[in-house]
Amino acid sequence: MSSRAPQALRAYAAVAVTILSWASAFPAIRLALRELQPVPLAAARFAVAALLVLGWLAWRRPPLPALPDLLRFALCGLIGIAAYNILLNTGQRSVAAGAASFIVNTAPILTALLARLVLGERFGVRGWAGTLVSFAGIALIASAQPGGLAFGAGASLVLGSALCMACYVVLQKPLVARYGALACTAWTLLAGALWLSPWLPEATAELPGAGMVTITTVVGLGVLPAAIGYATWTYALGHFGAARATNFLYLVPPVATAIALPLLGELPGPQTLLGGAIAIAGVVLVNMRSRTVPQASAAPATPRLPS
Protein backbone atom coordinates (compact mmCIF):
# COMPACT_ATOMS: atom_id res chain seq x y z
CA MET A 1 0.00 0.00 0.00
CA SER A 2 2.80 2.39 0.96
CA SER A 3 4.59 1.81 -2.37
CA ARG A 4 1.45 2.81 -4.28
CA ALA A 5 0.93 6.04 -2.35
CA PRO A 6 3.81 8.02 -3.94
CA GLN A 7 2.74 6.86 -7.42
CA ALA A 8 -0.86 7.97 -6.77
CA LEU A 9 0.37 11.30 -5.43
CA ARG A 10 2.45 11.84 -8.58
CA ALA A 11 -0.55 10.97 -10.75
CA TYR A 12 -2.80 13.46 -8.94
CA ALA A 13 -0.05 16.07 -9.13
CA ALA A 14 0.17 15.42 -12.89
CA VAL A 15 -3.59 15.95 -13.17
CA ALA A 16 -3.35 19.21 -11.22
CA VAL A 17 -0.54 20.52 -13.44
CA THR A 18 -2.49 19.54 -16.58
CA ILE A 19 -5.67 21.28 -15.45
CA LEU A 20 -3.85 24.43 -14.33
CA SER A 21 -1.75 24.70 -17.49
CA TRP A 22 -4.64 24.05 -19.90
CA ALA A 23 -7.06 26.26 -17.97
CA SER A 24 -4.56 29.13 -17.77
CA ALA A 25 -4.29 29.20 -21.56
CA PHE A 26 -7.69 30.91 -21.97
CA PRO A 27 -7.02 33.96 -19.75
CA ALA A 28 -3.41 34.05 -20.97
CA ILE A 29 -4.61 34.37 -24.58
CA ARG A 30 -6.93 37.22 -23.59
CA LEU A 31 -4.02 38.91 -21.82
CA ALA A 32 -1.66 38.59 -24.80
CA LEU A 33 -4.33 39.84 -27.22
CA ARG A 34 -4.17 43.25 -25.55
CA GLU A 35 -0.92 43.92 -27.44
CA LEU A 36 -0.72 41.25 -30.17
CA GLN A 37 -2.93 40.36 -33.12
CA PRO A 38 -4.56 36.88 -33.04
CA VAL A 39 -2.60 35.15 -35.82
CA PRO A 40 0.87 36.52 -34.96
CA LEU A 41 0.18 35.49 -31.35
CA ALA A 42 -0.49 31.93 -32.51
CA ALA A 43 2.64 31.97 -34.70
CA ALA A 44 4.88 33.19 -31.86
CA ARG A 45 3.40 30.77 -29.35
CA PHE A 46 3.93 27.71 -31.52
CA ALA A 47 7.38 28.81 -32.63
CA VAL A 48 8.30 28.49 -28.94
CA ALA A 49 6.53 25.11 -28.75
CA ALA A 50 8.31 23.95 -31.92
CA LEU A 51 11.72 24.59 -30.32
CA LEU A 52 10.76 22.31 -27.42
CA VAL A 53 9.37 19.70 -29.83
CA LEU A 54 12.58 19.68 -31.88
CA GLY A 55 14.58 19.13 -28.69
CA TRP A 56 12.30 16.24 -27.68
CA LEU A 57 12.52 14.66 -31.16
CA ALA A 58 16.32 14.92 -31.11
CA TRP A 59 16.39 13.29 -27.66
CA ARG A 60 13.87 10.49 -28.16
CA ARG A 61 14.41 9.93 -31.92
CA PRO A 62 10.98 8.41 -32.65
CA PRO A 63 10.63 6.72 -36.06
CA LEU A 64 9.95 9.11 -38.92
CA PRO A 65 6.34 8.68 -40.10
CA ALA A 66 5.70 7.16 -43.50
CA LEU A 67 4.81 9.61 -46.29
CA PRO A 68 1.02 9.04 -46.11
CA ASP A 69 1.17 9.56 -42.34
CA LEU A 70 3.30 12.69 -42.75
CA LEU A 71 0.56 14.10 -44.96
CA ARG A 72 -2.00 13.19 -42.31
CA PHE A 73 0.11 14.87 -39.62
CA ALA A 74 0.30 17.95 -41.85
CA LEU A 75 -3.50 17.98 -42.03
CA CYS A 76 -3.73 17.49 -38.25
CA GLY A 77 -1.39 20.45 -37.76
CA LEU A 78 -3.39 22.60 -40.17
CA ILE A 79 -6.73 21.87 -38.49
CA GLY A 80 -5.80 21.05 -34.89
CA ILE A 81 -3.15 23.75 -34.40
CA ALA A 82 -3.28 26.51 -37.04
CA ALA A 83 -7.03 26.76 -37.72
CA TYR A 84 -7.95 25.98 -34.10
CA ASN A 85 -5.74 28.71 -32.64
CA ILE A 86 -6.58 31.31 -35.29
CA LEU A 87 -10.30 30.84 -34.60
CA LEU A 88 -9.85 30.66 -30.81
CA ASN A 89 -7.58 33.72 -30.62
CA THR A 90 -9.82 35.76 -32.92
CA GLY A 91 -12.92 34.71 -30.99
CA GLN A 92 -11.35 35.54 -27.65
CA ARG A 93 -10.95 39.17 -28.67
CA SER A 94 -14.60 39.57 -27.66
CA VAL A 95 -15.41 36.39 -25.70
CA ALA A 96 -14.43 36.17 -22.03
CA ALA A 97 -11.89 33.53 -21.04
CA GLY A 98 -14.32 31.53 -18.90
CA ALA A 99 -17.02 31.54 -21.58
CA ALA A 100 -14.50 30.45 -24.24
CA SER A 101 -13.27 27.58 -22.07
CA PHE A 102 -16.81 26.27 -21.58
CA ILE A 103 -17.50 26.41 -25.33
CA VAL A 104 -14.22 24.74 -26.32
CA ASN A 105 -14.68 21.94 -23.79
CA THR A 106 -17.77 20.74 -25.64
CA ALA A 107 -15.39 19.42 -28.31
CA PRO A 108 -15.93 15.79 -27.15
CA ILE A 109 -19.55 16.07 -28.31
CA LEU A 110 -18.51 17.29 -31.74
CA THR A 111 -15.93 14.50 -31.82
CA ALA A 112 -18.60 11.90 -31.08
CA LEU A 113 -20.83 13.35 -33.80
CA LEU A 114 -18.00 13.28 -36.35
CA ALA A 115 -17.09 9.73 -35.33
CA ARG A 116 -20.72 8.77 -35.97
CA LEU A 117 -20.70 10.39 -39.42
CA VAL A 118 -17.17 9.49 -40.56
CA LEU A 119 -16.34 6.28 -38.72
CA GLY A 120 -19.85 4.88 -38.34
CA GLU A 121 -19.57 4.65 -34.55
CA ARG A 122 -22.66 4.28 -32.39
CA PHE A 123 -24.48 7.34 -31.08
CA GLY A 124 -27.62 6.40 -29.16
CA VAL A 125 -30.49 8.31 -27.60
CA ARG A 126 -28.38 9.43 -24.62
CA GLY A 127 -25.72 10.77 -26.97
CA TRP A 128 -28.23 12.85 -28.91
CA ALA A 129 -29.81 14.06 -25.66
CA GLY A 130 -26.40 15.12 -24.35
CA THR A 131 -25.73 16.96 -27.61
CA LEU A 132 -28.98 18.93 -27.36
CA VAL A 133 -28.33 19.77 -23.70
CA SER A 134 -24.78 20.91 -24.39
CA PHE A 135 -25.72 23.10 -27.33
CA ALA A 136 -28.49 24.67 -25.28
CA GLY A 137 -25.76 25.62 -22.80
CA ILE A 138 -23.58 27.02 -25.60
CA ALA A 139 -26.49 29.12 -26.87
CA LEU A 140 -27.01 30.48 -23.36
CA ILE A 141 -23.30 31.35 -23.03
CA ALA A 142 -23.20 32.92 -26.49
CA SER A 143 -26.24 35.10 -25.82
CA ALA A 144 -24.25 36.80 -23.07
CA GLN A 145 -21.35 37.56 -25.46
CA PRO A 146 -21.18 40.33 -28.10
CA GLY A 147 -22.89 39.16 -31.29
CA GLY A 148 -24.22 35.93 -29.78
CA LEU A 149 -23.79 32.95 -32.13
CA ALA A 150 -24.15 35.02 -35.31
CA PHE A 151 -21.74 33.97 -38.05
CA GLY A 152 -18.40 35.72 -37.50
CA ALA A 153 -19.19 36.72 -33.92
CA GLY A 154 -16.65 35.78 -31.25
CA ALA A 155 -18.68 32.91 -29.80
CA SER A 156 -19.22 31.37 -33.24
CA LEU A 157 -15.47 31.50 -33.91
CA VAL A 158 -14.73 29.79 -30.57
CA LEU A 159 -17.31 27.12 -31.45
CA GLY A 160 -15.51 26.76 -34.79
CA SER A 161 -12.28 26.12 -32.91
CA ALA A 162 -14.02 23.35 -30.96
CA LEU A 163 -15.09 21.82 -34.30
CA CYS A 164 -11.45 21.97 -35.46
CA MET A 165 -10.47 20.11 -32.28
CA ALA A 166 -13.05 17.42 -32.99
CA CYS A 167 -11.81 17.01 -36.59
CA TYR A 168 -8.24 16.74 -35.29
CA VAL A 169 -9.15 13.96 -32.83
CA VAL A 170 -10.87 11.90 -35.54
CA LEU A 171 -7.99 12.47 -37.98
CA GLN A 172 -5.33 11.58 -35.42
CA LYS A 173 -7.00 8.47 -34.03
CA PRO A 174 -5.26 5.93 -36.35
CA LEU A 175 -1.89 7.67 -35.90
CA VAL A 176 -1.85 7.28 -32.10
CA ALA A 177 -1.96 3.49 -32.38
CA ARG A 178 1.09 3.52 -34.68
CA TYR A 179 3.28 6.21 -33.12
CA GLY A 180 2.06 6.81 -29.55
CA ALA A 181 0.43 9.88 -27.98
CA LEU A 182 3.56 11.95 -27.33
CA ALA A 183 5.09 11.40 -30.76
CA CYS A 184 1.75 12.23 -32.41
CA THR A 185 1.54 15.45 -30.45
CA ALA A 186 5.13 16.33 -31.34
CA TRP A 187 4.62 15.85 -35.08
CA THR A 188 1.29 17.69 -34.99
CA LEU A 189 2.70 20.67 -33.06
CA LEU A 190 5.65 20.89 -35.45
CA ALA A 191 3.33 20.78 -38.47
CA GLY A 192 1.10 23.44 -36.92
CA ALA A 193 4.09 25.70 -36.25
CA LEU A 194 5.13 25.37 -39.90
CA TRP A 195 1.62 26.31 -41.10
CA LEU A 196 1.73 29.41 -38.86
CA SER A 197 5.30 30.38 -39.78
CA PRO A 198 4.28 32.90 -42.53
CA TRP A 199 3.01 35.14 -39.69
CA LEU A 200 6.27 34.94 -37.70
CA PRO A 201 7.71 38.12 -39.28
CA GLU A 202 4.60 40.00 -38.18
CA ALA A 203 4.96 38.50 -34.70
CA THR A 204 8.62 39.53 -34.45
CA ALA A 205 7.62 43.03 -35.51
CA GLU A 206 4.91 43.26 -32.82
CA LEU A 207 6.76 41.64 -29.90
CA PRO A 208 9.48 44.32 -29.41
CA GLY A 209 6.76 46.89 -28.81
CA ALA A 210 4.92 44.67 -26.35
CA GLY A 211 5.43 44.73 -22.61
CA MET A 212 7.35 42.14 -20.63
CA VAL A 213 4.08 40.67 -19.34
CA THR A 214 2.90 39.95 -22.89
CA ILE A 215 6.24 38.44 -23.94
CA THR A 216 6.31 36.24 -20.84
CA THR A 217 2.72 35.20 -21.54
CA VAL A 218 3.57 34.16 -25.10
CA VAL A 219 6.52 32.07 -23.90
CA GLY A 220 4.37 30.57 -21.18
CA LEU A 221 1.67 29.65 -23.70
CA GLY A 222 4.28 27.85 -25.79
CA VAL A 223 5.76 25.97 -22.83
CA LEU A 224 3.00 25.19 -20.35
CA PRO A 225 -0.14 24.03 -22.22
CA ALA A 226 1.64 22.52 -25.21
CA ALA A 227 4.68 20.87 -23.63
CA ILE A 228 4.38 20.43 -19.87
CA GLY A 229 0.59 20.08 -19.82
CA TYR A 230 0.56 17.36 -22.43
CA ALA A 231 3.42 15.44 -20.79
CA THR A 232 1.66 15.44 -17.42
CA TRP A 233 -1.62 14.48 -19.11
CA THR A 234 0.04 11.49 -20.74
CA TYR A 235 1.38 10.40 -17.33
CA ALA A 236 -2.11 10.77 -15.81
CA LEU A 237 -3.61 8.69 -18.63
CA GLY A 238 -1.15 5.91 -17.92
CA HIS A 239 -2.10 5.85 -14.23
CA PHE A 240 -5.87 6.43 -14.30
CA GLY A 241 -6.83 5.18 -17.77
CA ALA A 242 -8.62 7.28 -20.41
CA ALA A 243 -12.16 6.93 -19.03
CA ARG A 244 -11.31 8.03 -15.48
CA ALA A 245 -8.73 10.64 -16.46
CA THR A 246 -11.14 12.36 -18.86
CA ASN A 247 -13.43 13.16 -15.92
CA PHE A 248 -10.78 15.52 -14.55
CA LEU A 249 -11.04 17.68 -17.70
CA TYR A 250 -14.47 18.89 -16.54
CA LEU A 251 -12.49 21.03 -14.09
CA VAL A 252 -10.75 23.03 -16.84
CA PRO A 253 -13.55 25.57 -17.52
CA PRO A 254 -14.25 26.38 -13.84
CA VAL A 255 -10.50 26.75 -13.18
CA ALA A 256 -10.10 28.95 -16.28
CA THR A 257 -12.96 31.11 -15.04
CA ALA A 258 -11.38 31.37 -11.58
CA ILE A 259 -7.96 32.33 -13.02
CA ALA A 260 -9.51 34.98 -15.26
CA LEU A 261 -11.02 36.82 -12.28
CA PRO A 262 -7.77 38.07 -10.66
CA LEU A 263 -5.76 38.11 -13.90
CA LEU A 264 -8.23 39.95 -16.14
CA GLY A 265 -10.93 41.14 -13.77
CA GLU A 266 -13.50 39.07 -15.70
CA LEU A 267 -16.41 38.19 -13.46
CA PRO A 268 -18.73 35.76 -15.28
CA GLY A 269 -22.42 36.57 -15.12
CA PRO A 270 -25.04 34.08 -13.95
CA GLN A 271 -26.04 33.41 -17.56
CA THR A 272 -22.51 32.32 -18.47
CA LEU A 273 -22.19 30.15 -15.36
CA LEU A 274 -25.58 28.51 -15.93
CA GLY A 275 -24.85 27.96 -19.62
CA GLY A 276 -21.45 26.50 -18.76
CA ALA A 277 -22.96 24.09 -16.25
CA ILE A 278 -25.55 22.97 -18.82
CA ALA A 279 -22.91 22.55 -21.53
CA ILE A 280 -20.69 20.41 -19.31
CA ALA A 281 -23.71 18.35 -18.23
CA GLY A 282 -24.29 17.56 -21.89
CA VAL A 283 -20.67 16.45 -22.30
CA VAL A 284 -21.06 14.20 -19.25
CA LEU A 285 -24.15 12.62 -20.82
CA VAL A 286 -22.30 11.91 -24.07
CA ASN A 287 -19.30 10.46 -22.23
CA MET A 288 -21.62 8.21 -20.20
CA ARG A 289 -23.10 7.05 -23.49
CA SER A 290 -19.70 6.23 -24.95
CA ARG A 291 -18.67 4.20 -21.90
CA THR A 292 -21.74 1.97 -22.03
CA VAL A 293 -20.91 0.65 -25.53
CA PRO A 294 -18.02 -1.64 -26.52
CA GLN A 295 -14.60 0.01 -26.84
CA ALA A 296 -14.59 -0.46 -30.59
CA SER A 297 -17.79 1.56 -30.84
CA ALA A 298 -16.94 4.28 -28.37
CA ALA A 299 -16.06 7.78 -29.39
CA PRO A 300 -12.32 8.34 -29.93
CA ALA A 301 -10.48 8.41 -26.61
CA THR A 302 -7.48 10.27 -28.03
CA PRO A 303 -6.50 13.03 -25.60
CA ARG A 304 -7.30 16.45 -26.98
CA LEU A 305 -4.61 18.95 -27.75
CA PRO A 306 -4.20 21.59 -25.07
CA SER A 307 -5.71 25.01 -25.69
Summing up helix and strand content along with how strands pair, one would put the structural category as mainly alpha
Distance between the termini: 36 Å
Low-confidence runs:
293-302
Q: What assembly state would you assign to the polypeptide chains in this entry?
A: single chain
Q: What proportion strand?
A: under 5%
- How many runs of DSSP E, i.e. beta strands? 0
Q: How many alpha or pi helices?
A: 13
Radius of gyration, CA atoms, in whole angstroms: 18 Å
Largest β-sheet summary: none
- Helix and strand run: HHHHHHHHHHHHH
* Molecular shape: globular
Instruction: Look at the structure and give the mean pLDDT.
Output: 87
How much helicity do the residues have?
over 70%
Note down, in words, how this protein is organized:
The protein is mainly alpha-helical. It contains 13 helices and no strands. The chain is globular and about 45 Å long. The relative contact order is 0.22.
List keywords for this structure.
307 residues; mainly alpha; 13 helices
Topology:
Blueprint: H1 4-32, H2 38-60, H3 67-91, H4 97-104, H5 107-118, H6 125-143, H7 154-179, H8 181-196, H9 200-206, H10 212-240, H11 242-248, H12 252-264, H13 270-291
Helix pairs in contact: 1-4, 1-10, 1-12, 2-3, 2-8, 2-9, 2-10, 3-7, 3-8, 4-7, 4-12, 4-13, 5-7, 6-13, 7-8, 8-10, 10-11
In brief:
The protein has helices at residues 4-32, 38-60, 67-91, 97-104, 107-118, 125-143, 154-179, 181-196, 200-206, 212-240, 242-248, 252-264, 270-291.
